[in-house]
Amino acid sequence: MPELPEVETIVRALAIRLRGARVISARYWPSRVFRGVMPPVLDGAVVREVRRHGKYVLAELDRGHLAIHLGMTGKLLFDVPESPYTRAEWSFDGVRLSLEDIRQFGRVIWGEEVPDALQMLGPDPLEISKEEFVIRAGKHRTGIKSLLLSQAFIRGLGNIYADELLFRAGVHPTLSSATLSAKRLGEMWLEMRALLVQAITLGGSSISDYVDTAGRQGTFQREHRVYGRKGEPCRTCGSPIRKIVLAQRGTHFCPVCQEL
Q: Among 19, 22, 130, 249, which one carries the catalytic annotation?
């Protein structure tokens, strides 16, 4: 599933081409892609801004908001032919944007204002201050991996970057967040920002389906130190990377670098 770096990569490309563009037409194919109220006719609407909100692409129009979550296999692509997996298509002056989704886990949400589903999410990892991150994390007793995956705690992280962050911070994924000192949580905040900036710079991680709006894969997967590397030697100490299941999610870590 595309996480913060992948969605940010997509949003930056969308913003360049769509900011100020006028909708010529919008088409939607019968599918499970829409949640809640179907959007009204958008012909003539102007895109004021395209930004990221957690794992959502949020398009602010002069008459409401479209939020797009790509789910497991969703892709937003410019100027591609219609396919059996096309779920929505928006045409603008000189450009066409298609939502392609094989498994239909992606969704589009319409709202006059920013949809409630987005407003309920926690702060952004690249916007939250170190002080707020430390305070929020210290209030919980849940395992730190599960906490990082909670979109109510912080929005945008998923399995890939939670695993990578915990390795870089030297934190075992089963530790309770309440047992971590303010100093250690502050160090995690620093690692989180550096990790996400690096991943965005490299266009995100292409593990299976993710590509950018031009159909190009990201390259940050080459920099993964634990995620997807079960049994391979740790790039720091040489110990085999382990994989366990936490909160029904596969979790990768180094038992030496992330000692309990």
A: 249
Sorted by sequence, the CB contacts under 8 Å of residue 184 that are 6+ apart come out as 169, 171
Confirm whether 132 is a catalytic residue.
no
Whether the pLDDT of residue 208 is over 90: the answer is: no
Q: Which of 3, 8, 60, 164 is catalytic?
A: 3
Question: Do the Cβ atoms of 213 and 78 come closer than 8 Å?
Answer: yes
Angle of CA points 140, 142, 147, to nearest 5°: 85
Mark whether 108 and 139 lie in a shared domain: no
**Domain contains 238:** yes
Its pTM stands at 0.95
Give residue 96's domain range: 4-119
Catalytic residue among 39, 52, 55, 60, which? 55
Residue ending a domain, among 96, 119, 142, is 119
Q: Average pLDDT of 13-18?
A: 98
Query: Residue 9's pLDDT is what?
Result: 98
Known catalytic residue at 249 = yes
Last residue of a domain, one of 84, 119, 154: 119
pLDDT value at 143 more than 90 = yes
Any idea what the CATH number is for the domain that residue 187 is in? 1.10.8.50
